[in-house]
Design brief:
About 60% of the residues lie in helices and about 0% in strands. It has about 150 residues and is mainly alpha-helical.
């Protein structure tokens, strides 16, 4: 477990603080378009066949994804962890799987965030992104992210 716990926890805490103040930015620091709370709630309410806890988990997942890159498994863990949101694993899984997410692009976003904090070799970054103690991307998603972020020649 290299810097993932420290990085992920600090990053999530900092971005939640920023988001609560109404300021959001992309991984590159550029402002992003935000959706009002009522629009976000309405969009979640339109997801058919989900229970109330699953819809709440969808809202939480969308908020996390608006702040930082996550793998599918990493997002499910964040939502279901007692240190995260505490949703039931089944509800978190249904919520994440109901979303249309490009996990490769999330891996690239995570890779860019790591490279902005520290130097990584291509193989080191792939390992960080795909580690079960790290971001939990698949090997192919991790390789895509590292390559797109420019860590690999």
């Amino acid at each position: 477990m290299r810097i993932e716990s420290m990085f992920r926890g600090g990053l999530i805490g900092a971005t939640l603080l920023i988001a609560s103040c109404g300021a959001e930015s992309s991984a590159s620091g550029a402002p992003t378009e935000t959706t009002s709370s009522s629009e976000a709630v309405a969009a979640v309410e339109e997801v058919p066949g989900l229970t109330r806890p699953q819809r709440n988990a969808v809202r939480s997942a969308r908020q996390y994804l608006s702040m930082t890159g996550f793998s599918r498994n990493g997002l499910i863990q964040q939502l279901s962890s007692s240190y995260g949101d505490g949703y039931d694993v089944a509800d978190a899984t249904v919520a994440v799987d109901s979303l249309d997410v490009d996990w490769n692009e999330n891996a690239a976003r995570s890779a860019e965030q790591y490279l902005s904090m520290s130097g990584f070799s291509c193989s080191g970054l792939v390992q960080q992104l795909s580690s079960s103690a790290g971001d939990k991307y698949t090997e192919s998603q991790a390789r895509y992210g590292a390559e797109k972020a420019g860590a690999c020649s």
